[in-house]
Specification:
The complex is a heterodimer of chains A (210) and B (92).
Chain A: H1 2-19, H2 29-49, H3 52-60, H4 67-92, H5 101-108, H6 114-125, H7 127-155, H8 159-164, H9 173-179, H10 185-209
Chain B: H1 2-17, H2 27-47, H3 49-52, H4 55-91
The chains are: A mainly alpha (210), B mainly alpha (92).
Chain lengths: 210, 92
């Protein structure tokens, strides 16, 4: 929750400073931000690589649990395909912008990892889709936290883990532990790690298809 | 993008090799860099007046994508649960 506030605060600060003309629109920020992005990707990698506890946990899991991330990916992309149809319908009523299927899939491929996905999408697809990605993936995390008990009731114990997507190794882990059960904590961590890694992979794939 | 993802893989290898050497947590540094980049995303949105006027539209599409992704995930997780846990219970 604190992270969401820091992120939204930084985003809002940039937005307001630009809107009120405090920072002039003459600076070419995109060149600098590209190298900062490279630094970020390297740091995220180092953080993943030095985390021995997660690696140990992953080795102990039965192979079949590796299929839960696959279910999450399939469910997310199926949902995003339906969302594409809904958005096209709403676009005709001029309620939403016209977003392509690949762009819709890219936004959903953030799997709740709002910081990294919005930054990567902004870099390649621009501020419009970057902002949608930021909002959509924050909403995904918040909905998971808010509806975890109902998800377990309607869709059984794995539902909050799939819904949590890439956040299930950290921010949504406590809520999953509470409603899915203690025995699913290792599965949740494994799921989160696999999903985290898959975000830039899917984004690279979708961007290359455009 | 290929550069970005390659750097992440290089990072994983470096992190793995230096895991005993890195005593400090990198998370605050990562958070700082992320905040900086989201500040830039805010700036780019603010500079684009056309996008600012579309703010509600962006929000509506974000809600549609988020909710349907969550629903799709939940249904997929329900199938997965039935195929693994409930089948095991059934055999026992």
């Amino acid at each position: 929750m604190r992270d969401i506030l820091i992120i939204l605060g930084s985003f809002a600060a940039g937005l307001l400073l630009a809107l009120f003309g405090v920072i002039p629109d003459t600076l070419d920020i995109s060149q600098i931000s590209k190298y900062v992005l490279y630094l970020l990707m390297f740091l995220v990698g180092v953080n993943l690589g030095k985390d021995e506890q997660t690696l140990k946990l992953i080795r102990k899991q039965p192979l079949s649990t590796l299929f839960l991330p696959l279910a999450t990916m399939a469910g997310t992309f199926a949902g995003a395909a339906v969302a594409y149809g809904v958005i096209q319908f709403l676009w005709k009523l001029s309620v939403t912008p016209d977003i392509s299927l690949l762009d819709t899939l890219s936004v959903s491929a953030g799997f709740g990892y709002y910081s990294l996905s919005s930054i990567l999408i902004n870099e390649v697809r621009g501020a419009e889709l970057g902002t949608i990605a930021l909002a959509a993936n924050i909403i995904r995390e918040l909905v998971t936290v808010a509806f975890a008990p109902l998800m377990v009731k309607w869709f059984k114990n794995f539902a909050p883990i799939s819904s949590g997507g890439a956040t299930t190794a950290d921010t949504t882990l406590p809520i999953i532990q509470r409603y899915s059960g203690n025995q699913y904590v290792p599965l949740s961590v494994l799921h989160g790690a696999v999903m985290d890694f898959s975000v830039p992979v899917y984004l690279t794939l979708f961007f290359s298809l455009m | 993008m290929f550069i970005a993802i390659s750097l992440m893989v290089v990072g994983i290898v470096v992190g793995r090799l230096l895991r005993k050497g890195i005593r400090i947590s990198l998370s605050p540094v990562i958070m700082l860099v992320i905040s900086l980049l989201l500040f830039v995303l805010g700036l780019e949105l603010g500079f684009n007046e056309n996008l600012v006027s579309q703010f509600t539209k962006l929000g509506v599409s974000a809600i549609v994508i988020a909710l349907l992704s969550v629903l799709g995930s939940c249904i997929a997780a329900w199938f997965f649960y039935r195929m693994t846990v409930e089948r095991r219970k059934g055999n026992a």
